[in-house]
Amino acid sequence: MYDPTLSARFWRKVAQDGDCWLWTAAKDPRSGYGRVRVHGKTAYAHRIAYELMVGNIPDGLHLDHLCRNRACVNPYHLDPVTPLINTQRSPIAHGAKTTCRYGHPYSGDNLLIVNAATGRRRHCKKCQAAAVRRWAARKAAPPVAS
C-alpha cells in the first residue's frame, strides 16, 4: 500500500516526541483512535502507520496497542493478534470494570448477573430500577391527543 504522497501527508500529522508517536489530526470521538482519509475513505491512523512501515495486516487479525494509547501510531507498539487475544488483553476484559457508566459499583446488593444467550452479563441494579421506572411512567401516561 506504499503511496509516497500518503506517506508524506501522514507523517506530518504525527508527533514523535517520545516512545509513543501521537496522531495529532482527527480522532474518532468515541474510541479515541486517529482517523485519516485514504483514497476517499476514512481509515484508522494506526493501521495505516503499520502498513506503511511494516506491511499488510494479516487477514482476520486486529492491531493491539501494547502501550494502551489509542492515539499512538508507533508500529513497534502494535501487535497483530486475533480478536479474542485483543479482547483478553484489554484493560476492561473479564469484568475488570468496577462501576457502571454512571459510577454505581458492580458489587454487593447493586450487582445483577444475567445469564443471557450471549453469556453472563453484569448489570447495575440502580440503573435497571431507574429504567423500569421510566418505562412504567411512559406506559401510565395518557395517550397524546392528535
Strand order of the largest sheet: 1-2
How many DSSP-defined strands? 8
Domains (count): 2
Helix content range: 25-40%
* Sheet with most strands: 2 strands, antiparallel
Write the SSE topology.
Elements: H1 4-11, E1 14-15, E2 22-23, E3 35-38, E4 41-44, H2 45-53, E5 62-65, E6 78-81, H3 83-89, E7 111-116, E8 119-124, H4 125-140
Antiparallel strand pairs: 1-2, 3-4, 5-6, 7-8
Describe what you observe in this structure:
The protein is an alpha+beta fold. It has two domains: 4-89, Homing Intron 3 (I-Ppo) Encoded Endonuclease, Chain A, CATH 3.90.75; 97-146, no CATH class. 27% of the residues lie in helices and 22% in strands. It is built from four helices and eight strands. The chain has a two-stranded antiparallel ribbon. It is elongated, with a radius of gyration of 22 Å.
Quick rundown:
With 146 residues, this protein is of the alpha+beta class.
Which descriptors would you attach to this protein?
2 domains; single chain; elongated; 8 strands; two-stranded antiparallel sheet; 146 residues; alpha+beta; Homing Intron 3 (I-Ppo) Encoded Endonuclease, Chain A
